Amino acid sequence: MEASPFHGVVACLATMHGKQWALRPLLRRRLGMSVRVAPVDTDALGTFTGEVRRIGSARETVVRKARLGMAATGSVVGLASEGAFGPHPAASWTPADVEYVALVDDRSGLTLVESALSVETNHGQVVTEGRDRGAVLAFLRRAGFPHHAVVVRPATGPGQPVKGLRRLADVLVAVRRAALDSADGTAVLGADLRAHVNPTRMRVIAAAADRLARRLATPCPACAAPGFGLVGTEPGLPCRDCGTPTAHDALLVAGCGRCAYRSRRPVGGAADPGACPVCNP
Ligand SMILES: [Zn+2]
Ligand SMILES: [Zn+2]
Predict the structure, then answer these.
(1) 65 & 111 share domain
(2) Residues 30 and 163 in one domain
(3) What would the pLDDT profile of 19-52 be if each residue is shown by its tens digit?
(4) CA separation for the pair 227, 215 (Å, rounded)
(5) How far is CA 82 from CA 21, 85, 116, 190, 236, in A?
(6) Is 160 found in the same domain as 111?
(7) Residues lining ligand 1 (ion), CB within 5 A?
(8) Do 38 and 90 fall into the same domain?
(9) How far is ligand 1, taken at its centre, from the CA of residue 3, in Å?
(10) Cα 280 to ligand 2 centre (Å)
């Protein structure tokens, strides 16, 4: 670990939502790096409940967030995390959570973003009338309440969301109030996706942080900069029956964040003839 260029470094982590619990132990163990919380208003870059719309992709936002913490604390090394919830990229009927974790190091000019995708998410919401206790209870069971908090807002109108609800009595009161505040008499009850009240999401953040830490612990074989790792794939996996290259991934490409060095390693195996342009035109 002494060889790690991050050994003894104190990085600032921009978070209001307890993300140090997911990042700190991993980064200390794998890199010898310490984490100091930069309590900046990360909600200014977007909220899950929609009061502030996020500008740009999660990958861009996570770097901006790390920079915000660095500016606030004067740190030369910054960390941040950002999540994106939506349909799975390869299976649109399944909800997924993609978590991004970034490290920005102004000492070396390195910016590295790693991500983790999980279908383990309680992301979701339900529209309910003020007195429909059955619908509320059914949603709470699905959302993993009370280990996971929920959010309530009026279905229409300017009413603000009530976040971080973890007691049934509070949820029922909030739903009744929100329904009264809404022109159509209904409330939206949803999962609270903020990390500190959503342990399922916190686990995905930890998985992304683990990837980042492993990668930072891997030096580039050409220039020795930290952060060598998977940067992409290349298609061309041969058909099992006739050997024609298909659109399936054939190579894993590892790259450096600083120099142009790339290494390629075969995925192995063969593609199903169903994906072959010759066997299944
Ligand atoms: Zn390199
Ligand atoms: Zn074929």
Answers:
(1) yes
(2) no
(3) 999 999 999 999 999 999 998 888 877 887 777 8
(4) 5
(5) 15, 10, 11, 19, 33
(6) no
(7) 220, 222-223, 225, 256, 258-259, 261
(8) yes
(9) 17
(10) 7
Whether residue 88 sits in one domain with residue 46 = yes
Tell me the CA–centroid distance for residue 238 and ligand 2, in Å. 8
Distance 76 CA to ligand 2 centre (A): 53
Query: Under the phi-then-psi rule, with left for phi > 0, alpha for psi from -120 to 50, and beta for the rest, what region is 263?
Result: beta
**Ligand 2 center–CA 233 separation, angstroms:** 21
Which H helix or E strand runs over 280?
A: none
The pTM assigned to this predicted structure is: 0.85
Q: Which ligand is nearest to the CA of 270?
A: 2
Residue 243 CA to ligand 2 center (angstroms) comes to 6
Spatial CA neighbour of 96 closest among 105, 87, 104: 87
Task: Compute, in angstroms, the gap from residue 221 CA to the centroid of ligand 1.
Answer: 7
Residue ranges of E strands in 201-260: 229-235, 249-255
| In a shared domain, residues 116 and 132 | no
259 alpha carbon – ligand 1 mean position (Å)? 4
Tell whether 21 is covered by a domain.
yes
- Note the ligand closest to the C-alpha atom of 242: 2
Q: What is the pLDDT of residues 238-270, one digit of tens each?
A: 999 999 999 999 999 999 878 899 999 999 999
Do 137 and 259 lie in a common domain?
A: no
Parent domain of 186: 125-191
131 and 57, same domain (yes or no): no
Q: How many CA atoms lie less than 13 Å away from 281 in the CB half-sphere?
A: 1
Give 7 Cα–ligand 1 centroid separation in angstroms. Answer: 20
Quick one: CA dihedral 113, 95, 210, 233, positive or negative? negative
